[in-house]
Amino acid sequence: MSDYGMKISLDGFDVKTATPEQCSLHSKYACPKILLNQSPSHFGTYTHTFGSNPANGVTTLKSVVHGFNYKPMHFVLIKYDLSGIERTSPLPGAYGTANQIYARSTTTTLNIYLQRAPGTAEIEDLTGVSWTFKYYIFVENGA
Amino acid sequence: MPDYGIKASQKGYDVKTCADYELLFSAGWPLVKIEAQGSKTISDKGADEVIYNHNLGYNPLFLVFDTSSVANNNLLLTDSPLSPLGVTDTNLTWFGTQGAGLSGSITLYYYVFRYDLLTNFTANTLHSESTSQVAIDDYGIKISKSGSDIDSTDMRDFVIHSSCRSLQIHQSAYATKSANWTHSISHDLGYEPMFWFYWYDAVSGYYGMVDAQNQEVKGTASSTAIGLSGIPAGTLSCLIFKDPWDLEEA
Asked: Nearest by CB to A139, which of B28, B164, B210?
């Protein structure tokens, strides 16, 4: 990069000598971005409540069309209550021993999946269970 | 922060009154900045291999995706016996020797960000109440990457753009904990925020991202605090973003 650009230092740091870490914004370093005003939106929440136990194997819980022609960077968190303990964390996740939850993006969609393991002795009953997801589809490449 | 600085809102929001999470940036807090991104194939998942030599001298924020497990898909990889990866102060590394009998190859897509996981920082809250997006006119701010056309329609060509949200860091904290610990990080956001959580222990020797399948280290968020707990001794690092959990686009 040539000796031009723009940087904005954080409070207390001299912009002429501030490191990138001491800046709010530094034009040498791009920021992950989420495109606004998309339909469907590239960020939001989704709550999935199970009316009955899903079949063993892979179930798509949510699919969001993103309109990019590439696999974008994404980030999905899940919030749930298991045995009275609330938990919020990024995917991939597990709900008990039999349920793996994960997110992937393709060149057309961001998908949230449940993989329910067949043959698990103590498979959890998901009837009435709710999971809330918060998802982000970024402009940047994820692959 | 003193009463000076610069801030810009997302397109359509009044910069003077909009909530912090409706801003594009403010001089009062840092954005997440990309130091490096790229693809790397680990030829033997059972061995240790450097994904990216960042040489930053600190343990940076990072994300890694698996781009090879299923054709045309990608999966965020957090630290687990099946994906033992994390950062030290010099490298982002695949620690295959600490995995669960791994073999074969894997192709990764990684991001390393210019932010030290061991940073204690708290931003002010300027405005916390949502406002309405008004008519979107053709104005705003955009900064193209070096070598990219400022008139590009590909948002990947920009450092920042008023038509996009950005990740604004409200707070970050770290703490070293003894075994069987709990830790609360209070915040003044007034809403349940999005947060990222990393963990270091002496056994692994690196910082890995904590996910929702980790049975030993856990987190939850409320409108006043992030609550973290764990079994092993180690060091936690948490980033809290100016981003309400229930934020939806109007």
From this structure: B164
